[in-house]
Design a protein that fits this description.
homotrimer; alpha/beta; TIM Barrel; eight-stranded parallel β-sheet; 13% strand; globular
Chain lengths: 269, 269, 269
């Protein structure tokens, strides 16, 4: 990163302490909806240092020509980014009774990580645990997700807290808190996308520091989570073309977080 | 498509029966706002199998260098996609009394299809019919559009039903139901973008199956139309970077339609 | 532009009198959030004739590898577009007491223009004036911005009018009226993004014609400003992939402005 952040040498950024890759916290997870092979390479030129995970959303992996998919996966991994198919695709495989085939195929294609979710399907706790263990046994890192995609399916917070504990015990490295693409009416966000602070604090208290990844598609949501947890909060479901803007937010290079840095300095003075 | 959907061999998709190209129904029409020549080629790598029509929106064709426009048109057509300039541009040509020049130029540029609309201009029924017939006579396929761009101009539903019948009789292959880029306050969508089911059912009943293309820019709208008409409903005004997501929705690879597939299976059991 | 607008020869555009580059009014300013080096070249193929200024938003310049940044700046400048780092970045430099280093580095990187704003930081009028003069002295063109990013910081309109007068006197070529990325609750737009006509008229009256650039991220806002000031109004904060659509709007090639052109013609008849 010497060359990368050459401005650093003349200007200290307002929010200090942003971690560099490879890192255990301050992770940015990007959701890809189907960038073309040339677009993804071009995008990596600027974005690779700021992205830790990339998800090929829901079942979109199923719609690529095999060679294009393999090349795209390799490209992303070679830039130091963990890459995985969306959790919905794994749920479909479970529903069809094809988990082993699904994991084997994912390994062959080059995926380095597996997401285990129950966003749509009801999955027994024992099945979930075995799925995590099986994927880990095959060499994948595992991310799990808590929270339902449809408000009608939503579970009490206590059930999510149990799931987080069980998932980490079974071998998951990180747990994503679902917010969907919309960021509305889901776990820590209300119907207008506003933060439910109580739910957020209870979830944060239940998991070891740095293990939760908060999905936060909207800039205001990202800003609030950075204000609460600092520049090294883990954030997910970031659209590819918002990564640089988010990184600016993390480092205080954008009005919102720069403003807070000024205020904190005034309060200290 | 053997190689394309290689996952098919191990996992049946939740929504079955999705048609493959070339197809008469299940069409996806994309609205292009000016992708660059390299971007469009890269985009076709993944998206060509899932797109049937591409519109260069409103009068944007007028803003390209001629060689870039010709190359882009050729690229898209060579991927088995019908391509046409936006209906507004034809309305301008009619308004200026330059229809013949407009059609001749469109043919020279390589366009394979013409959209006949009255989204902005008042056009006599006889002029509309003659325009369709003239374009057909020159070898274009013709798509017409019903519904006004400005809520102040909107016509009663019965007038749209007459137009659909007349357009098909004059030689149009498909009729698009206008929803604008916003998907609000227009024909089958109310001021908040919600479906007006009555209007939709009356339109659907009036046209032979597969002849209507519903503009539906929003994911929720696409979902509702797929729920009602199945995976092979014709959908239009899809942004280029939403095609893969829509195709996932059509095949039940996304939470929303996967959820319905699960419920239907439960109900049958 | 002979070859560019070859359609012109057969169809006069509904809104006439659109200026061509290089121009003093009718400017389009684009906000870049981090297009990759290949994407920006491809984008210029179609968009260069319609763009006058490009801003690398807030502090994003700080996140590029130096060689990629220089190449991107050179590319954009070679297409006849003035390019500058976001105003927030200059505010950070001022806050850190590093203005001279900031300007020197910006010059070395190839930036041709500097934005002087107080969107986040409180800046003394004298500091603002000296900053403008210093940048001008080093050969930059200078754009200033009036209006605060956070509604809590907003100033009375009279203060903005004074600032505009002072900025132009100190050597600024253009003054941007802040609307943020959202276009809501800021200077000429209310909480729903609707135009506050009184404020707009007072600002317009205070500045020599063609010196204000209105930030207007939303299509409806662009439309209203074109209706009021004509096709050659200066507009800013345009997303890169909306430039062609905006140019269509300026020339009456889109439903909204085409409709007005028809009505005016009817009224004259």
């Amino acid at each position: 990163m010497e060359n990368q952040l050459f401005w650093d040498k003349i200007i200290d950024f307002p929010l200090e302490g942003r971690s560099e890759k490879p890192r255990q916290s301050g992770l940015t997870m990007v959701i890809d909806k189907g960038m073309g092979p040339a677009a993804v390479k071009d995008w990596l030129t600027l974005n690779a240092p700021f992205v830790d995970y990339m998800k090929f959303s829901f079942g979109t992996s199923a719609l690529y020509p095999e060679d294009v998919l393999c090349e795209k996966i390799a490209c992303v991994r070679n830039s130091g980014i963990d890459v995985y198919p969306g959790g919905t695709f794994l749920e479909i495989a479970l529903w069809r009774g094809k988990l082993d085939e699904y994991l084997r195929r994912s390994l062959d294609l080059g995926y380095s990580c597996i997401e285990v979710s129950d966003g749509t399907l009801d999955i027994e706790a024992s099945t979930r645990r075995e799925t995590i263990e099986k994927a880990r046994g095959m060499g994948f890192s595992v991310i799990t997700e808590v929270g339902q995609k449809d408000a009608r399916d939503s579970k009490p917070l206590s059930a999510l807290l149990d799931q987080i504990r069980d998932d980490l015990r079974a071998g998951a490295s990180k747990v994503i808190v679902e917010a969907r693409e919309s960021g509305k009416s889901v776990v820590i966000f209300d119907g207008e996308g506003k933060l439910r602070r109580d739910e957020m604090e209870q979830l944060a208290a239940a998991a070891p520091e740095g293990t939760l990844i908060w999905e936060a598609p909207d800039k205001k949501q990202q800003h609030q989570l950075i204000e609460r947890f600092g520049p090294n909060v883990n954030l997910g479901n970031i659209p590819p073309d918002e990564v640089i803007a988010l990184e600016s937010l993390r480092r205080g290079l954008r009005g919102d977080t720069f403003r807070s840095a000024i205020q904190r300095k005034k309060e200290r003075a």
